[in-house]
Amino acid sequence: SQQGEEDPQALSIQEGENATMNCSYKTSINNLQWYRQNSGRGLVHLILIRSNEREKHSGRLRVTLDTSKKSSSLLITASRAADTASYFCARAQGGSEKLVFGKGTKLTVNP
Amino acid sequence: DGGITQSPKYLFRKEGQNVTLSCEQNLNHDAMYWYRQDPGQGLRLIYYSQIVNDFQKGDIAEGYSVSREKKESFPLTVTSAQKNPTAFYLCASSINSGRPRGELFFGEGSRLTVL
């Protein structure tokens, strides 16, 4: 399968804690993107990291990319109940015009 | 405001009927996409279009058809040949059609249920 794996499948934490989600993939990539999906809604783009970048920040989000291990992580710091959603990574694979999405991590932040 | 509009939000269909899902964007994006999402699953690409009057099959095109007669519009028809059409359908667009793929902008989705 071209899909990578996201880990964990589900994560439940308390407000104020940090949440870390991981994404692994199998083939070379041009960039890797993270998206958020609230229940029953469309996806919203969070951050894009290119293959020559190792870390990017956006507000409370921090994304890392390790191309040698073919993995990426999304860290949400000081989580809030409003962060409750599913988070997906998507890979723009080398030589392909398509984005390949993982199955996502369902994050629940308890107030 | 610019964005992507999908309609209808909910749709019920009897077996054997074709249905068409609408997707309109006013972002002036060249590329448009249709994805299917099943419960607890990621997104699977049905069809995509990089330019008007041209489109390509994605990973699960069987039982679906599309058209791209206008830059703003990319309707998806779910035909009776699609064996398991009950799903959440998402339309997306991106500013460029080249490689590598950039950020996708998504609509709010259409939920199709076959009765």
Notable features of this structure?
heterodimer; A: 111 residues; mainly beta; five-stranded antiparallel β-sheet; 11 strands; globular; B: 115 residues; seven-stranded mixed β-sheet; four-stranded antiparallel β-sheet
Biggest protein-protein interface? A-B, 25 and 29 residues
Helix content of chain A: under 10%
Sheet/helix structural class of chain B: mainly beta
Distance between the termini of chain B: 36 Å
Radius of gyration of chain B: 13 Å
Helix-strand sequence of chain B:
EEEEEEEEEEE
Count of DSSP-assigned helices of chain A: 0
Summed up, the helix count of chain B is 0
How much of the sequence of chain A is in beta strands?
over 45%
Distance between the termini of chain A: 37 Å
The overall strand count of chain A is: 11
Quaternary structure type: heterodimer
Task: Describe the protein in words.
Chain A is an all-beta fold and 111 residues long. Helix content of chain A is 0%, strand content 59%. Chain A has no helices and eleven strands. The model of chain A has no long low-confidence stretch (mean pLDDT 92). Chain B is mainly β and 115 residues long. Chain B is built from no helices and eleven strands. The termini of chain B are far apart. Chains A and B meet through strand 4, strand 5 and strand 9 of A and strand 5, strand 9 and strand 10 of B.
